[in-house]
C-alpha cells in the first residue's frame, strides 16, 4: 500500500519506479527482521543500497574476481577485486551493527535469534550460538530477500507496461473474482489462476537469479552420464533451463498461458512439462520461496486492482537477453506512467 500511495503521487507523470519498489520491499523485510520501517535517509537504507551497488561488480562472472580464483596470491598485491571484497565484508558488519542496534526487542527475527542465543548455553556455560550464527542468517535474509524481489518486480513493471492485453486480462480476473475494493489476500490465489500464471511466467522469463549459489559435491556421483568427483563446485544454470527451446515454445515471448491447463487452472508443480526452478531445488532451495511467491502474487494482483501502467518517456528493453550481466538480472533504467483506476 506504501507503493500505491507513492504511485498515486506520481499519477499521470513519467517516472522511474525503482526507488519506490526498493523502499517498499526493503521495509517489508525490515518489519520482519528488525520490527521497524525506515525512510530513504536512514543509515540502514543507505548501507543496503551501498552493498547492493557494490555486490554487483566483484561477484559478476565477467568481473575481475575470476583472476583471484585462479591466482589467489594476487590478494597480497593489492588486487582491486580483493580490496572490494574486504570492503563488502566491512559493509556487511556495518549492516549487522545497525540491525542489532535497531531491533525492536519484541517479536522480530533478530530479537528471536538473540533470545535463542541466550538460551543456548552448553555445560561449560558458553553460548553454542555465536554472534556469527546470528549475523549471517539475518543479513542473508535482508540482502537476498530484498534484492531478488526488487529486481523481479522492477522487471515486471517494464514488461507489463508493454503488454496491455495481459494487463487487461489480469484486471478483468481481479475485478470479477475479488472486486475493486476488497483487500487481496494470499487465499485469493485459487480464485486468480491467470494472475498466478503471470507470476510464474515472470519468474521463468526474467530468471533474475540466473544461477543457483555454489554447491560443493559431497561424494563421487554421476549427473546425466557425467562423472562428478567429491569436492567439485557445482552451480545450476537456471537461465538455460528456463529458456531451453526443447522445454518452452518461443521462450523469449512473455506468455502466461503456458502455465495454464485447458480448463484454465494453473499447471501443477509436478506436471512433466513444468521445468521451472527459479528458487533452485533440494535441501539448499531458497528459504524465501513461499514468501517471495506470495508477496509477488499480492503485488501483481493489487497493482492490477488499483492501477494501469503504460510506458513512460525513458524506455529500456524488457527482453531479459538485453539485461546487463549481474548477480540479479534486471532491466536498465526506464520510466512508466501510472493511471489510478476509478
Ligand atoms: C523472486 C524472489 C527470489 C528468487 C528468484 C530467489 C532465488 C534464489 C536462488 C536461485 C537461490 C539458490 C538456491 C540454490 O542454490 O539451490 C536462493 C537462495 C537463498 N534465498 Fe532466495 N530467492 C528469492 C527470494 C528470497 C527471499 C524473499 C528470501 C528471504 C526471505 C530469500 C533468501 C534466500 C537465502 C537465505 C538463500 C540461501 C539458502 C541456502 O544457502 O541454504 N530469497 N534464492
UniProtKB/TrEMBL annotation:
Sorted UniProt keywords: Heme, Iron, Metal-binding, Monooxygenase, Oxidoreductase
Name listed for the protein in its UniProt record: Uncharacterized protein
UniProt binding sites for heme: 286
Annotated coiled-coil segments of the chain: none
Keyword Heme tagged: yes
Cofactors named for this entry: heme
Family listed: Belongs to the cytochrome P450 family.
Keyword Protein biosynthesis: no
InterPro entries per the UniProt record, alphabetical: Cyt_P450, Cyt_P450_CS, Cyt_P450_E_grp-I, Cyt_P450_sf
Entry-linked PANTHER family: STEROID 17-ALPHA-HYDROXYLASE/17,20 LYASE, STEROID 17-ALPHA-HYDROXYLASE_17,20 LYASE
GO process annotations (BP): hormone biosynthetic process; progesterone metabolic process
Amino acid at each position: 500500500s506504501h507503493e500505491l500511495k507513492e504511485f498515486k503521487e506520481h499519477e499521470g507523470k513519467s517516472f522511474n519506479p525503482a526507488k519506490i519498489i526498493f523502499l517498499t520491499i526493503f521495509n517489508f523485510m525490515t518489519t520482519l527482521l528488525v520490527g521497524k520501517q525506515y525512510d530513504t535517509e536512514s543509515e540502514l537504507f543507505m548501507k543496503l543500497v551501498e552493498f547492493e551497488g557494490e555486490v554487483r561488480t566483484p561477484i559478476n562472472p565477467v568481473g575481475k574476481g575470476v583472476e583471484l580464483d585462479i591466482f589467489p596470491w594476487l590478494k597480497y598485491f593489492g588486487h582491486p577485486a580483493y580490496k572490494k571484497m574486504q570492503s563488502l565484508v566491512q559493509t556487511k558488519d556495518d549492516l549487522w551493527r545497525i540491525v542489532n542496534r535497531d531491533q525492536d526487542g519484541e517479536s522480530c527475527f533478530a530479537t528471536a535469534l538473540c533470545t535463542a542465543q541466550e538460551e543456548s548455553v552448553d555445560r561449560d556455560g558458553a553460548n553454542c550460538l555465536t554472534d556469527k550464527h546470528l549475523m549471517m542468517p539475518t543479513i542473508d535474509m535482508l540482502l537476498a530477500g530484498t534484492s531478488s524481489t526488487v529486481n523481479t518486480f522492477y522487471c515486471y513493471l517494464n514488461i507489463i507496461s508493454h503488454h496491455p492485453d495481459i494487463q487487461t486480462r489480469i484486471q478483468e480476473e481481479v475485478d470479477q473474482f475479488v472486486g475493486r475494493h476488497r483487500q487481496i489476500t494470499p487465499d485469493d490465489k485459487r480464485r486468480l489462476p491467470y494472475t498466478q500464471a503471470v507470476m510464474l511466467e515472470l519468474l521463468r522469463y526474467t530468471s533474475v537469479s540466473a544461477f543457483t549459489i555454489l554447491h560443493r559435491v559431497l561424494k563421487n556421483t554421476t549427473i546425466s552420464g557425467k562423472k562428478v568427483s567429491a569436492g567439485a563446485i557445482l552451480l545450476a544454470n537456471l537461465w538455460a533451463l528456463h529458456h531451453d527451446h526443447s522445454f518452452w515454445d518461443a521462450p523469449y515471448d512473455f506468455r502466461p498461458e503456458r502455465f495454464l491447463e485447458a480448463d484454465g487452472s494453473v499447471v501443477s508443480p509436478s506436471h512433466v512439462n513444468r521445468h521451472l526452478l527459479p528458487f533452485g531445488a533440494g535441501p539448499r532451495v531458497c528459504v524465501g520461496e513461499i514468501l517471495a511467491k506470495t508477496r509477488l502474487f499480492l503485488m501483481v494482483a493489487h497493482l492490477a486492482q488499483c492501477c494501469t501502467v503504460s510506458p513512460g518517456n525513458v524506455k529500456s528493453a524488457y527482453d531479459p537477453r538485453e539485461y546487463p550481466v549481474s548477480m540479479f538480472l534486471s532491466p536498465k533504467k526506464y520510466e512508466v506512467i501510472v493511471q489510478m483506476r476509478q
